[in-house]
Write a structure and sequence with these properties.
nucleotide-binding, ATP-binding, binds thiamine diphosphate, binds magnesium ion, ATP binding, 7 helices, Adenylat/UMP-CMP_kin, binds adenosine-5'-diphosphate, 5 strands
């Protein structure tokens, strides 16, 4: 069970909303064959299932707030275990969103080998998300929620980068693809 992923190679992928986390992960998957798990995608799949839990998640995500830590951590852990036999390593995209999430992950699953910090300017992120909102169908790609997601990123997630900087495992990449 959880033993299966005890020694797995783990890479956290962190960056602002629309910084390009998903895009960078796709490139890494193509090159290194790691298993890409996006916390946002896992949560949206739960919403799409129409479950009672999904409805509660939808309301939180629409506001640009963080869903409860245990919910997202359990989902990631289950998804990791499901891929344990075929996985060379994991890209955990969109997690941790706050220092506490990192600490709990390490207690329950294991330590990351690396934190990939996808860097982009706030202005770039907003522009991209507004554009993405035209076609994404995501309830949170609208001006009001984008602002809240950005604020929360600077407040809660940037400290995560500083936390892992101190451990010397942060690698910064540009989220610009051009
Ligand atoms: N690690 C997490 N902890 C709590 N909530 C999360 C987490 N990851 C995603 N979410 C929820 O899902 C939403 C969308 O996440 P994501 O797809 O990663 O978006 P973004 O485009 O902002 O990077 C977040 O705004 C939040 O409500
Ligand atoms: C003008 C324009 N440029 C780029 C895109 C494609 N695009 C939309 S959002 C985005 C940013 C990266 O998205 P994603 O990798 O999903 O970022 P994440 O939210 O996962 O960090 C890009 C490149 C677009 N739709 N329109
Ligand atoms: Mg994404």
């Amino acid at each position: 069970m959880a033993d299966k992923i005890k020694d797995a190679k783990i890479v956290f992928v962190v960056g602002g909303p629309g910084s390009g986390k998903g895009t960078q992960c796709e490139k890494i998957v193509a090159k290194y064959g790691y298993t890409h798990l996006s916390s946002g995608d896992l949560l949206r799949a739960e919403v799409a299932s129409g479950s009672e839990r999904g409805k509660q998640l939808q309301a939180i995500m629409q506001k640009g707030e963080l869903v409860p830590l245990d919910t997202v951590l359990d989902m990631i852990k289950d998804a990791m275990i499901a891929k344990a036999d075929v996985s060379k390593g994991y890209l955990i995209d969109g997690y941790p969103r706050e220092v506490k999430q990192g600490e709990e992950f390490e207690k329950k699953i294991g330590a990351p080998a690396l934190l990939l910090y996808v860097d982009a300017k706030a202005e770039t992120m907003v522009q991209r998300l507004m554009k993405r909102g035209e076609t994404s169908g995501r309830a949170d790609d609208n001006e009001e929620t984008i602002k809240k997601r950005l604020d929360l990123y600077y407040k809660a997630t940037e400290p995560v980068i500083a936390y892992y900087e101190k451990r010397g495992i942060v690698r910064k990449v540009s989220g610009n693809t051009d």
